[in-house]
Give the backbone structure.
Amino acid sequence: MEQNNELPKTTEEPAVKSEETLQTAEAETNAVLPPPAAPEDPKPEAAETGTKEQEVKEAASAVPSAQSEAPAEISKSSEVDQAVKTEETKAATGEVPGGQGHKESEEDVEFKKVVSHMPDEVKPRFVALKYITDKRKELADKLEEEIRELERQFDLDCVPLDKKREELINGKRDPMAEELEKAGEFDMQHPEAEVPADIDIEELKKSKGVPGFWKTALRNSEALIKFITDEDAKVLDHLTDIRKENLEGKNYRLVFKFAPNEFFTNEELVKTIIVPEGETFCQETQGTEIEWKEGKNVTKKTIKKKQKNKKTKATREVTKTVDIDSFFNYFKSRKAPPKDQDEMEDMDEDDEAMKEINAFEDDTHITEEIEDEIIPNAIYYYFGIMEDSSDESSQESGDDGSDSDHKLSLIHISEPTRQAEISYAVFCLKKKKKKK
């Protein structure tokens, strides 16, 4: 009986365990297997099909039929004509494709006008030739920039040398041993030579430095002496240094340093030369306003003039201050003349605008002479032994090769610059003829 009671228990336990195992296995299976895919909706397929049909219709409408081919060609031709007209408009206004604020040259404008009217089968040749020309100009511009960089570096290298010169001229120091290495070469006297009359030997003996050095150098320049009056010379006695300082881009300034004097309170007078980006020549100058002391202004003169009253017949004396020629007019600020030569030729010689143009030209000549001649060769101009740059003989080839620097500078000048110089020379000749 006991065995029979235990048998049912043994039989029931496996049954329960089997049921639990099945439930656990089913749960694990459901967790591993992905959910059954939902039935596909036929509507999106229909929408996609509709979209494809629409694209086909649009593509078909974009393809011209045989009947519409001729009008399309006509339309294309008109577009080309319109493009040509657009280029002509750009050329006429000087607008540069790519728009960077630069203006095309007159030659480029005319070139575009002409080439735009040439046959299509011929035009590419000239476009290619223009491309080659532009590439050459890029090389010339690069060379010009490299030369400017060399010049700027040269000017920087000269700063300590110019400082030593300034100290020696103004008696701030005595000559150094290294500066006297070649002193023996100057011991032998030459009977045919003599000290210029404008150099005061006695003054040199009792003074330190070289008094009146810059005044003497300036007055010994044939290009400058015509601008320097006797009254100017009295002021230039106090000139202690002239130097060049480079500014941003092509701009620079000439600095004239003065010792305290009876004429004005300024310690320095400065002439700033402004050459805008893309320009070759100076377009504007800015000068220091001179603070003249009472009655010491050498750029003006007081004149007295008698005036008669028409009604009373009485006379009175009127005092009037007028401008006069002076080297110190150089420090006035000025603008470049108009580029239109026809406009310049129509001006009267006594017209105020023409006087201002002549003054700007004078300023340019003074600047060039001081920058290129006086500053680097001051000691030769002091003794009056420097061949003047304005002398006609210096423009010709000589056995001594003295014009080699001038030739070299012309080699490096770009074609547009040479043309501008020629154009300016022609204008000057026309002015001379007009005066006659």
Notes: The beta strands are 239-246, 252-258, 268-274, 284-287, 300-308, 315-323, 334-335. DSSP finds 13 helices and seven strands in the chain.
